[in-house]
Write the structure tokens for this entry.
Amino acid sequence: MINLATLFWLVLVSAAGFAMFAVKYQVQSLEDELNRTRKESIAEEHAIRMDEVEWAYLTRPETLVEMNQRHLSLMPIATTQLRGSLADIPLRPSSPPAVEEAVASAEPLGENAAPVPLAVAPPQTPAEAAQAPPTPLQTTPQAASAISPQAPEIAKPAAAKAVAKPAAPHHPKTLDDLIAQIAASR
């Protein structure tokens, strides 16, 4: 019969040999995965370089001009399309003075006070707005007394201020001059 010590060493050597083969195949699979990852990384770097080259080619001025003529047919900006000064740019209409006064003199609403609806002028087309003078926001007598209890009647709106345009456009030479000109016009 086989000695018990011999059987123990035989099982131990077999287990060690099996473990060595398992570790060897794990290392080989990890090396294969590492090589595959390196190849994918190199392929990605190559694709990135090709994209950069294509972008450089497509953004060349000659290529852009050719694509513009083929697809868009855009023309250079004419000097007549540019604004000469800040005064040439149309300004937004300011809010009527009567509304500003009513809002400034309004007292906070109490617990039982209901919100006051204001009558709003109907919307106008741009052509009608250019021809018609600006109209102040009108309120009902109840709204006026709710906004300001001291004024039982509707106050007449003050005349709208005219927007003054500068006499001669000043062409700024520096950015600081431009900022100062914009600040002075407001």
Remarks:
- The two ends are 112 Å apart (CA to CA).
- Residues 174 and 180 are 10 Å apart (CA to CA).
- Residues 4-72 form one domain.
- The mean pLDDT is 74.
